[in-house]
Specification:
29% helix, Dna Ligase, domain 1, Rossmann fold, four-stranded parallel sheet, nine-stranded antiparallel sheet, alpha+beta, D-amino Acid Aminotransferase, Chain A, domain 1
């Protein structure tokens, strides 16, 4: 029986554990115990911080795992790359981990290779000279995901508080300040094998409005022209090569301006969270992205042939105070045949500052047009 190490144990990792077990794979899950819902499902659970890469390596060596993987967590990528390289498993080179997980080093690489991305500054103190940047700006930690510590800044007066939040939420106590790019945002879901990249799907995003822009819905496939799709694909292939992402899933976020200029916002060297990789790709294309990523980590991979797959619309919506009207729909999901999966995680709905504040979700195959209308009426940032 193959043995798979899974770094992270929150609810977004749960589909990974279930899929691996359905394939007859022994699962070894590592994370803090708090919020580790996977501990009830995984074959073995280790209450260890995902940053303790040496300790995790030691256990993986004793267990003799055959592969290592994560979903949705940039922080976990550091441990995944390290353990994979130390044990000779499929993964990406540990020498390039900072390029894949740190927004500043990522931006530096993009700049050196001529990849279009927002103009930026690195900041380690609450005072930051942004004289050569144009407002509005976005401040964010250099090493976090899930919209944690992200703020839109409209003037110099707002910058200090935004920097404080970003720096305080950064593991390395550093923030990046970048020019805000107006436009539509999409993410690009890919899988790579030995340096060859396969584009699986492009996802449209819906977020809350300023200042935090927390994602509250995703739709596949994004509505794009053939020409724009090709342009995006060419850019993403260049970006993945630039970051030395050679094996596994990736999630690239791109802004598209009104005149169809493309700007790379950031890249995750792992499957996208928010059920994008674990559910939407499979529902919209028929390609089992989750299974493919697991098998790839174990050293077996069959390239996708998406031309043969049927195309559907797949969506996920997240419950929060901003989307409280979703609650009765989730509670009465049997009345909606489009719903594939839905769950309320916390009955006390909160206003979103990051994705960790969300209180539930709804996944459907087929569009909920009335939900889209609600999003627009609530003045959320709808990116179609």
């Amino acid at each position: 029986m193959s043995k798979l190490a899974i770094i992270g144990a929150g609810y977004l990792q749960l589909p990974l554990v279930h899929k691996a077990k359905s394939l007859g794979i022994e699962t070894h899950c590592f994370a803090w115990e708090e919020g580790a819902v996977c501990c009830q499902v995984a074959d073995y659970f280790y209450p260890i911080s995902i940053t303790e890469k040496e300790q995790i390596l030691s256990i993986c060596q004793k267990v003799r795992i055959d592969g290592i993987i994560t979903i949705a967590s940039d922080l976990a990528v550091t441990t995944v790359n390290y353990v994979a390289q130390q044990m000779g498993l499929v993964g990406n080179q540990d020498a390039y981990t900072l390029l894949m997980t740190n927004k500043f080093f990522m931006r530096e690489q993009f700049t050196s290779l001529g990849v279009s991305s927002p103009k930026y500054k690195i900041c380690r103190e609450l005072f930051c000279d942004v004289a050569d940047l144009k407002f509005p700006l976005i401040t964010k930690p250099t090493d976090r995901s899930g919209s944690v510590g992200v703020t839109k800044v409209n003037s110099a007066m707002e910058l200090t508080n935004a920097l404080k939040e970003a720096i305080n939420n950064s593991f390395s106590q550093t923030a990046i300040v970048e020019e805000f790019i107006e436009g539509r945002e999409v993410s690009v879901e890919c899988i790579s094998w030995k340096g060859h990249h396969y584009l699986l799907a492009i996802t449209d995003k819906t977020t809350t409005s300023a200042p935090h822009f927390v994602e509250i819905a995703h739709t596949q496939p994004a509505k794009l022209s053939v020409e724009l799709t090709k342009k995006i694909e060419q850019l993403v292939m260049k970006v993945l090569d630039a970051l030395h992402i050679e094996n596994g899933a990736s999630h690239t976020e791109i802004k598209i301006t009104d005149n169809e200029e493309l700007f790379v916002i950031e890249v995750g060297a792992r499957m996208g969270g928010d059920f994008i990789g674990s559910h939407l790709v499979h529902l919209s294309t028929g390609y089992d992205f989750l299974q493919a990523t697991i098998k790839l980590s174990l050293g077996t991979f069959t390239p996708p042939n998406l031309d043969k797959e049927e195309k559907y619309i797949a969506e996920v919506y997240f419950l929060s105070q901003e989307t409280s009207w979703l609650k009765p729909i989730i509670e009465n999901r049997e009345n909606y045949p489009e719903i594939v999966e839905a769950k309320i995680l916390n009955k006390n709905l909160t206003t979103l500052r990051s994705s960790s504040d969300r209180s539930g979700y709804l996944i459907c195959k087929g569009q909920f047009q009335h939900l889209k209308k609600e999003l627009e009426q609530k003045k959320c940032t709808f990116v179609h």
